From TrEMBL:
The keyword Membrane applies. Belongs to the G-protein coupled receptor 1 family. Its main location: membrane. Keywords: Cell membrane, G-protein coupled receptor, Membrane, Olfaction, Receptor, Sensory transduction, Transducer, Transmembrane, Transmembrane helix. GO terms for molecular function: G protein-coupled receptor activity; olfactory receptor activity. GO terms for cellular component: plasma membrane. This is Olfactory receptor. Odorant receptor. Pfam families: 7tm_4.
Amino acid sequence: MIMRVMNSSSVSEFLLLAFSDTRELQLLHFALFLGIYLAALLGNSLILSAIACHHHLHTPMYFFLLNLALLDLGCISTTLPKAMANALWDNRVISYQGCAAQVLFFVFFFGSEFSILTIMAYDRYVAICKPLHYGSLLGSRACAQMAAAAWGSGFLHAVLHTANTFSLPLCRGNAVDQFFCEIPQILKLSCSDAYLREAGALVFSVSLVFNCFVFIVVSYVQIFREVLRMPSEQGRHKAFSTCLPHLAVVSLFVSTGIFAYLKPPSISSPSVDLMVAVLYSVLPPAVNPLIYSMRNQELKHAVWKLFYNSF
C-alpha cells in the first residue's frame, strides 16, 4: 500500500480505501454500485417529476418530499460516482480539492436532509394534531422559509466542518480508511492538537442532531396519541399511511448513522467500517423513494400517470 508521510502544505491527493484488490471483485462492485445509483436516480427523479407535474401534489407534505428527493440525489451523487470510477479504473486517488469538495457536499446534503426530515415530522404533527391551523402554520411562505432554513443550516455546517478539517496539518500519510472522504478518517491523519477544535464542532453538530431526533420522537408521541383517539378506522388508517413512510425513512437514516459513528470499538475494522459507510451513505437515498411510494396511493397514481403520458 502506497503511503506518503507529509505535512498538509504538500498534500496534493488522498488515497481512498479500495473495496477489493481483486480485479473481478472490483468490476462486480462497479456493477452493483451502478445498479444502486441508477435505481436512486430513477426513483428520486420520478418523485421530483410527479410532484412538479401534478398540481394536486403541490401541498406542504409533497413540497418537503420534493426537497428530500433532491437531497437524496445530492447525497448519493457526492460519494458513489467517484467510488464507481475508482473501482472501474482500479484507482484509489482523489485530489485534495476533490476530497474537500466531497466533505463539503456530503455534510451539506446529509445535514440538510435531517433538517428536512425534522420539518416533515412537524408537518405531520400539525396536519393530524392541529388540522384547523394547518393552512396558517404551513402556508407556502412558511414552507419556503423552513426549507431555506434547512438548506442554509446544512450549508453553514458544511463550510464550518470543511474549513476546520482542511486547515489541520496532516503528517500521518494520505491514506483515508474509507471509500469516500469522511471527516473522522481525515482527522486521523492529523498530528496536531488542533483536531480537538473540529472534534468540538462535531460534538456540537451531534447535539443538534440529537435535539432534532428528540423533536421527531415527541412529535410522533403526540401524533399517535391523537390517531388512537380517532373514532373512524378509515381516519386512523389514512393518518398512519401518511406517517409510517416518514417514520420508516427517519428510522433508516438514524439507525444507520448511529451504527456508523457510535458502534463499539471492539467490532470496528476497515472492512466493517466500509460496509457500514455504504449502509448509511448509499442505502437511504436509494431506498427512500421505494418507502414513500409503497403506501402513498396519490404518489403512485401520479408516477403511473407520468409513465402513461410518456408512451
